[in-house]
Every structure is written in structure tokens, then in C-alpha cells.
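User: Let's play a game. I give you a shape written as C-alpha cells, and you guess the letters that built it. Ready? Here's round one.
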């Protein structure tokens, strides 16, 4: 049987891994056997809790990945390009060609970009599920370039087995009920996909289709929780109502999902809670309303966010909020305002801190240039895809030190009382956070997770030693 090996670097709970699961299932449908060479990027930049570059170096070897691929002697090796992995693909493909030039390299390119130094045999440009199926149907004879989108309801069940050596699906089962997002935030990759494929890209599977996957997966893995990774799970009230009814009847395990303050109301919150939702995550990003609206292109008003978080509190539905650092034009008073806002919230589970990342063609590049955070040269490089690290970091950012302090403070805020948080903010003690080592903050986050019975964090910590062990035993 012909073999296809997928190569992937990064954490598991993201879109690309789900795409690989679908591609593997499609390939099996065409009679191929499939495998995976997986660099879990331990302590790497794709890890949103434990990013420790020095330790990451100890756990990564691009030559090893190429050797592992060569060892299984595949007919095809498949890479899916994303904003952060161009350099990695370039290095692996070069190393691989040097030790085994028989394996044919397939690059799947979901977003149009200029040519890079990646060595490949086939280039499939378009939505992965669609172009890969076309390629296999044609018996691997040609490059494909297609704007067509896959019908999500006719895809096979995702091949979870391909990651089962690394991920314990009985702890947590990840699924997506659709693709894309109705929003057009200036910094977001979903906006890039919408711009590439038009608004048709934003679509959803039927409730029945999603439930049938979950029924199958529950039987197979007996999972304890589900995470719906859709950008805005609550976007369609009618779809959600129908889905949740079946979910309560046929699945009935706790779940986590993502909402948006202007795409949720009290009825939805109640329905989510009654259906087993134990946590919902909202993007807040900044408490500066003008920046949120005019720079980030987010339409939610602060009052709207506040009101929906209060409703979650009233119905005892825990929530996480996403806060972003490194925004153009942000000032110290915006962080102080955010800290005051967060310290007054009830049922707040976690403040998840993110750094702004710059994607090619993202609208936010314009504001970053105007504010002086980055210069034209860097924008050029980002646009050409030459900066292929996950973070194209701002060159100069006036708020670096303040950002570092508030990032640490926000991570542990829900652990402290409202009075303590207020004292830290009013007295300016937030400045002292620059002296607190990151590892201590991680330790406090762990305590917070245990106190809150935070399922996601527990799973994360449970899986980390397994990740490290699998690196040591398998290289
Ligand atoms: S709402 Fe979220 S997922 Fe949608 S475009 Fe904005 S940031 Fe992206």
C-alpha cells in the first residue's frame, strides 16, 4: 500500500491538526496508508503557557524530523503551510531531500503567497480538504490550484488515530463545527481566510453531522469533555439551539466553547449552562474602546462585554477572557483600566494573555506602522512571507516593560481578592511584577487551575510530562 506521511510542528489544539485528521481520513478512503511525524514544539512558540525558547532548543531537532520521515519510506510527504511554519518546512524539506530524494513532497498552500525556498514536488493551492482530495482522485499526477471549498457535511470522520499516540482523547475531544468567522478583525487569520476565499468561507456543518461525529467519538474514546474550537460557537442562535438539544440528549458531557459579546445573549448563556458548558471564552483584547473599534475592528462595546460577563456570573457560567498585548497606540492607562475592569468580574476563570502577531496583508500592519511599532521594511518582509517565525515581533514598542508586568499580573489576578488587585493597581505595585520569575507565575496559575477545577489547564499539565517522555523515548 502507498504511504503518505504528514509532517506537523506545533500544539495539538488548533485547526491544522484537525485538518490533518481529515486529510488522513480522505487519503485512507482512496486506499493509502497514512502516518505522522510530529514535532510537538515542547516549550516552543506555539505553546501559549510554557514558552521557553532556551529549553525548546533542547527538545527540537529538524534533522531528526527529516530522518524520521525518511525512515518510514513514504511515497508522499505532506506539509500544510501556515503563517508560522515556512522556515520549518523549508529546513525539513531540504534535509529530507538530502537523505532521501525518493519521497515526493506535497505542499498544501491554503493562502496565496510568493514562492519560498521550500523544495517540493507538488503544490496544492486552495482549501486543504478540497485540493488534497482532487490530487488523490487524479492519482497524484499534477499540481492543483482551486478556489472551490469543501462541503463540510460530506467529509469523512476525522482520523483521530493519527494523533492518538500523542493525545489522550478520553481526557478531551477537540472538534470544529464549521470554518471561518463572520468577524473581520484587523489582526486575525480568520480575516485572511475570508479575504482569500470570500465570505463563503464562513460556514458550518449541520447539527446532525456534528452530533454523529460526537456519538462515534464518545463510543470510541469515552471522552470526559469536549472542546469546540470554532471562533465563535454562539454565532447562530437557531443552529445552537437545535444542536444543544441533541447534545444534551446524546452526548451530555461537559464542554468548553468560544463566544463573542455581540453574538450571545442571556437565553444562549442559560442554554449553554444547561447543556453542560463549563466555561466560555470571550475576546476582550483591550479596554480602550477606540482602539478596539478603530484599530482592531471589533464591534463590541465595553458595556456590552461587561453586561454579558455579568450574565455569565449570574448563571454561574465560568468564563475566560482573552487580552492582547502589543497593540498600536496603547498606553499605560489602558492597562490600568483593564486591570480595574478585570478585578471587578465575578466567575472570571482566567485572563488569557496573547501577544499581537502580524500576518501578511493584515490591516493592523497599517496601524502598527503609523504608530511607529514597526517600519516599512519589516512590513515588506512580513508581506513577502520572509518572516516566517510565529511572531513577527514589533521592533520598538514603548510599552514593553509595562506589558511584561501587566501580562504577569493578569495571569494571576483571579487568584487574588478584588481588594488585593485594587491595592496593587492603585499603589503602582504592578511595577514589581517585572521582578517575579515566569516560572513562579506558572506555578501560581497551576494553583489557580486547581482551585477553579479548570479542566483545560489540568489536561494541559497532565499531557506535558507525556509530551516530554515521548520526545525522550522516540527522539
Ligand atoms: S471575532 Fe475572533 S475569530 Fe472572528 S475575526 Fe475577530 S478575532 Fe478572528
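Assistant: Ready! My guess for every position:
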Amino acid at each position: 500500500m502507498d504511504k503518505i506521511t504528514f509532517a506537523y510542528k506545533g500544539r495539538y489544539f488548533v485547526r491544522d491538526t484537525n485538518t490533518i485528521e481529515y486529510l488522513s481520513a480522505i487519503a485512507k478512503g482512496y486506499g493509502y496508508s497514512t502516518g505522522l511525524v510530529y514535532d510537538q514544539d515542547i516549550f516552543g512558540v506555539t505553546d501559549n503557557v510554557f514558552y521557553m525558547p532556551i529549553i525548546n532548543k533542547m527538545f527540537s531537532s529538524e534533522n531528526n524530523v527529516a530522518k524520521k520521515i525518511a525512515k518510514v519510506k513514504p511515497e508522499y510527504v505532506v506539509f500544510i503551510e501556515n503563517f508560522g511554519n515556512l522556515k520549518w518546512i523549508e529546513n525539513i524539506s531540504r534535509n529530507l531531500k538530502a537523505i532521501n530524494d525518493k519521497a515526493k513532497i506535497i505542499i498544501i498552500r491554503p493562502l496565496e503567497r510568493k514562492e519560498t525556498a521550500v523544495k517540493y514536488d507538488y503544490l496544492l493551492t486552495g482549501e486543504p480538504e478540497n485540493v488534497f482530495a482532487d490530487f488523490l482522485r487524479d492519482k497524484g499526477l499534477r499540481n492543483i490550484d482551486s478556489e472551490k471549498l469543501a462541503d463540510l457535511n460530506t467529509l469523512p470522520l476525522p482520523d483521530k488515530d493519527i494523533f492518538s499516540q500523542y493525545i489522550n482523547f478520553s481526557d478531551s475531544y477537540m472538534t470544529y463545527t464549521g470554518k471561518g468567522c463572520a468577524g473581520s478583525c484587523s489582526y486575525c487569520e480568520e480575516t485572511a481566510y475570508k479575504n482569500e476565499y470570500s465570505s463563503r468561507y464562513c460556514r458550518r456543518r449541520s447539527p446532525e453531522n456534528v452530533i454523529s461525529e460526537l456519538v462515534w467519538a464518545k463510543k470510541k474514546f469515552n471522552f470526559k469533555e469536549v472542546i469546540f474550537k470554532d471562533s465563535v460557537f454562539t454565532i447562530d442562535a437557531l443552529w445552537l439551539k437545535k444542536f444543544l438539544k441533541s447534545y444534551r440528549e446524546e452526548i451530555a458531557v461537559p464542554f468548553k466553547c468560544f463566544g463573542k459579546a455581540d453574538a450571545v445573549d442571556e437565553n444562549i448563556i442559560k442554554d449553554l449552562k444547561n447543556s453542560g458548558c463549563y466555561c466560555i471564552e470571550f475576546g476582550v483584547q483591550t479596554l480602550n474602546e477606540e482602539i478596539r473599534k478603530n484599530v482592531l475592528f471589533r464591534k463590541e462595546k465595553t458595556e456590552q462585554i461587561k453586561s454579558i460577563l455579568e450574565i455569565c456570573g449570574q448563571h454561574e457560567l465560568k468564563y475566560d477572557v482573552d487580552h492582547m498585548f502589543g497593540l498600536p497606540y496603547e498606553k499605560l492607562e489602558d492597562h490600568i483600566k483593564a486591570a480595574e475592569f478585570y478585578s471587578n468580574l465575578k466567575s472570571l476563570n482566567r485572563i488569557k494573555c496573547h501577544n499581537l502577531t502580524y500576518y501578511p496583508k493584515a490591516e493592523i500592519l497599517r496601524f502598527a506602522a503609523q504608530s511607529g511599532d514597526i517600519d516599512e521594511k519589516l512590513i515588506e518582509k512580513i508581506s513577502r512571507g520572509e518572516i516566517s517565525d510565529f511572531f513577527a515581533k514589533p521592533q520598538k514598542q514603548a510599552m514593553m516593560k509595562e506589558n511584561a508586568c501587566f501580562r504577569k499580573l493578569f495571569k494571576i489576578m483571579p487568584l487574588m481578592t478584588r481588594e488585593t488587585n485594587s491595592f496593587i493597581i492603585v499603589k503602582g505595585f504592578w511595577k514589581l511584577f517585572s521582578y517575579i520569575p515566569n516560572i513562579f507565575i506558572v506555578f501560581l496559575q497551576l494553583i489557580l487551575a486547581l482551585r477553579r477545577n479548570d479542566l483545560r489547564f489540568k489536561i494541559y499539565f497532565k499531557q506535558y510530562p507525556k509530551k516530554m517522555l515521548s520526545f525522550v523515548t522516540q527522539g
